[in-house]
Every structure is written in structure tokens, then in C-alpha cells.
Amino acid sequence: MPRDESRLPALQQFHAARQRRIERSFPKQGNLHIVRLAKGEGVVEAVARYRASGLVQFAEPDYMVSAAALPSDPRFQDGTQWGLNNYGQSGGMPGADVDAPEAWDVYRAASNVIVAIVDSGIRHTHEDLAGNLWKNPADGTHGFNALTGNHNPWDDYGHGTHVAGIIGAVTDNGKGVAGVAWRVQLMACKFLDTRGDGFNSDAVTCIDFARTNGAHVINLSWGSTVYSQAVSNAIWFARSEGILFAAAAGNDSHNTDAIPFLPAGYALDNIVAVGASTRTDGVWSSSNYGANSVDLFAPGAAIYSTTAASDAAYESKNGSSMASAFVAGTMALLRAESPSAPGTELIARLLAAVDVAPAFAGKCVTGGRLNMRKLLDRPRVTVTSQAWPVELRVNGVTGHSYVLSASTNLTAWTALQTNIAGTDGGWVFTDDAATNFTRRFYRAAPRP
Fold first, then answer.
1. If you ran DSSP here, which 8-state letter would residue 238 be given?
2. Which end of the chain is less enclosed by CB atoms within 10 A, N or C?
3. What is the CATH number of domain 74-375?
4. Burial of 238 by CB count in 10 Å (0-12 exposed, 13-18 middle, 19+ buried)?
5. pTM of the predicted model, to two decimals?
6. Could you tell me the residue ranges of all domains in the chain?
7. Hey, which bits of 41-170 come out as E strands?
């Protein structure tokens, strides 16, 4: 691409003098040229000559890219799992999803992360869950049952098993569904009975079991409007160990600023309250909401996952329970990526990475829906030369598109270039305008 329009004739002469041919040009994209090199000319050498010529804004090889690696699970492949990848199937809105395939290019496994599911238990023999269950080092069991006091948290209601599949069904195994985290350790902590009811005292017991047995993330897909100091304290005590909580905002169509739904509504900085969104990026009709009490939304309507009827059973469910599970699985990947970061820092990153949409404005703190890619795909910018002109390198994931921006005050940012990371994971940009500023900051982010 020419440095400016005045240099276009000189650039065309530069091509011709070296027997290169313009294959395609894009006048509305800054006169971008696709150039075929002379026979026998090396790509690396040619790119270097263009960059050194002073005639171009940038020059890069015509990199080959590949489609993102997609798991073989049938219900992901056929589009049933719209929350992970929404391309408009079944009346959905393309992009109204968590951008899972793009995120999986960066992080897909959290094998060392334990996610405790404080719920109705898990069917531990399920074909899509057995391989991802936590095992107690002492006896090989998979969790705790607060109703019986033993270590057999068998799911006789089905809710916990459904949540578990969203968080971490074994993925790319040719069976059933894909989990947010392909590999993870699912700890079953049962306190809900055959009707889905349970007592706060048993929930506290489960949270304490999870805390003392190494859980990194705890999912709470349940609640009520009754305040419990004991439950609040249990979550608070887990905070000192860096444990992150995802909690369902509830399914009563209520404004939880006025009618709190707990535990999601406890004012604790290690818990994220999650409402349920639809495949068209709307608020699910029964989801609770709250400009100050719900943090974000995540897919929660028509969510297909594992269930407890048999070892090969699956079904679709609605609710903020499902939305919370999307966030819990994402938290697992985030913790795997940043194992020693403070929990509050990770939550701040998660909330800053949402997709803002009109339907969520005034309905939650962030005004947006969970986006895994924005959270996990974090390109780096390196200044490779501070001499005039300043040269920068953007490093990310091969084939991913990023926007490079600049600022003088870290508040107002101006987009400089959008480009696709090549086979070496990045590209080089020369900032001719840098000399016009006393200071200039740079950042890169995934393309919207």
C-alpha cells in the first residue's frame, strides 16, 4: 500500500522496474496492491526492499490462513450449540455468541483447573463428562454429597449434569456437545435434592468442601431472594484463596436492583452475576436483570447440554443457570492462562471484554454479553525501532484480525491499521505520524 496517494506513480514504476505485476488493486482501501513477484525473486527479500523504499505504508507476504480448528462434537458441528458459535442458524443473529472458536485458537484446555459445581450433583458415568471429572486423591471419588454426608454426588435431578456439560463436556471426542473448556476438572458438590431444592447450610458445606479441596472456580446456578450471612461469608472466605464465583442472576423477570437475587447479588468482588441472553442478542424473557446488580449476560436460552437420564442423554434448557455455566467455563480458561493473577484482576478483565449491545444497556453493569475471544486473545505490541519512522510489531494468533491503535493520553484512541496476523503470528507497521506527537502510546485488540 503506498505511503500516500502522491507516491502511487512512483510505486507503480518501482513494480515495473523489477518486473513485478499488479495482480489486484483496491482503490478504496488506500490503493492496496496485490503484487506477483518476478520469477525467481524471494518473498522475504522483496518485502524488505519495499519497506526500505520509502514508498509504502506497509508490505507483507500474502500469508496462507486456515479455518479455526473446530471440535468434532456433533451438536457443535450441526449448529445446535449456538451460544458457542452463532452464524445465524435457526433464526439467530450472526455473532450473538461468545466467539468460542476464535478463543479456542488461544486457549481451549484448563486441565489443571478445578471447577466446583455446587448443584444437584453430576452423573459421573456420562459419556461426555466422565473424562473431565475431578478425582479425589484420597479415594478417587468425584466430589461430595451434603445430603448424605458421603462422597457420592450422584445427580438424581439433572440440573447439575446439564450445567457441567456447558462448562466442560469432553470436547473433540466425536460425541454429544462441546464444553467451553475442552479439558477441565469438574468437581461435583451436591446439595439440591430430586426436586431441585436445597438448604443454605448444605450449600455452605459444599462451598467449604470445594475450597478445602483446591477448587479454583465455583459455579452457583441457584438462589433465592432470602439473604444468608452464612452463604455470603462462605464466598468471602474463599476470596482470600483467589477462588472465582459465577452465579445465576435468576429467572423471575425481576429487576434485581429492587429485588435482590442471592447469592448472585452479594456485594462481593469475587462473584460475577450472570443474566441469560438469546440467540438474537436479547435478554431472555424470564431472565432477571439489574443495572447495578447483574454484571453481564451470557447465552441462556435453548442451551443444549448433557443431562442425567442416561449415559448418553442430552437436552435443551433455558435459564441464567446455563448462562452462569458459560462464565464459569470461561473463568477456568482464564485461570489456566493466568494461574497466579489476583482473582479481582481476572474478573475485571472478564467484565471489560464484553460485547456491548443495545438490548443490555441499563440491564447490567457492563451493558454487554460475554466474549471469550476478547478476553483470551490479547495481542502484544512491541516497538522494534524508535528511530524515525517508528516501527512497531503486532504479535497475536496466525489468521486472526487485529486493530492497532494509538493514543497520546491513554483515553482517546485512534485506529491506525487493521490487519491479519501472518504465519509468524504478526505484522510490522511503520508509524509515519509519530513525529507529530511528544508522546504516543500503542495498543492492539481483536477486530470487532
1. H
2. C
3. 3.40.50.200
4. buried
5. 0.85
6. 1-62, 74-375, 379-448
7. 109-119, 143-145
